[in-house]
Specification:
The chain contains one helix and no strands. The chain is an all-alpha fold.
Length: 68
């Protein structure tokens, strides 16, 4: 994840907490969560569209074995 470990993420979280404060932070995280959810939904919709647009593979023909 971008080369960030737990200590780096904790420092970033602490800085965000200092900037926005405890009252605004839940609102920001809620908005971030909704944004991520919408992005994943849009990504899934695009992937589903691409799967529908792919031509179906031609049916394979089975060759019958003949006994001689």
């Amino acid at each position: 994840m971008f080369g960030l470990g737990v200590p780096e993420l904790l420092v970033i979280g602490f800085i965000v907490f200092l900037i926005f404060g405890g009252k605004k932070l839940p609102e920001l995280m809620g908005g971030l969560g909704k944004g991520i959810k919408e992005f994943k939904k849009a990504s899934k919709d695009v992937q589903d569209e691409l799967k529908l647009d792919e031509p179906a593979s031609p049916p394979t023909q089975k060759q019958e074995e003949t006994k001689s």
